[in-house]
């Protein structure tokens, strides 16, 4: 299993009046982590989009464990939990600098044609990328 790390500097605009990170901002951090994982593996979301495909989120699940505050660094750990013909499930841990888990999450994505939103097989669109995900997935 391959795990990618993305460091996040918590900005004041991401917090509420109590200085605690507003819950919806974690979803943005998940996307930063997913994009970093893809980049670390040598692939590009832009390339897929230029070929006429997009990868919408079908499901997001976040469990909040410990609050994070303005000025603290956060680490987003991202990996491929599972990959099948159509669905990719990414898993995440968002950590405090000292390793305390602030949140755990998963996102589920499919690949669709940009113009029709019809699902397509990931393997048919980019076999190398698909095979890499199969190789590194937590569960096969």
UniProtKB/TrEMBL annotation:
Classification via InterPro entries: 4-hydroxybenzoyl-CoA_TE, HotDog_dom_sf, YbgC/YbaW
Pfam families in the cross-refs: 4HBT_2
Keyword match Coiled coil: no
Keywords per UniProt: Hydrolase
Molecular function terms from GO: fatty acyl-CoA hydrolase activity
Coiled coil (residue ranges): none
Keyword Hydrolase set for record: yes
NCBIfam families: YbgC/FadM family acyl-CoA thioesterase (TIGR00051)
Entry similarity comment: Belongs to the 4-hydroxybenzoyl-CoA thioesterase family.
Name the record gives this protein: Uncharacterized protein
Organism: Kurthia sibirica
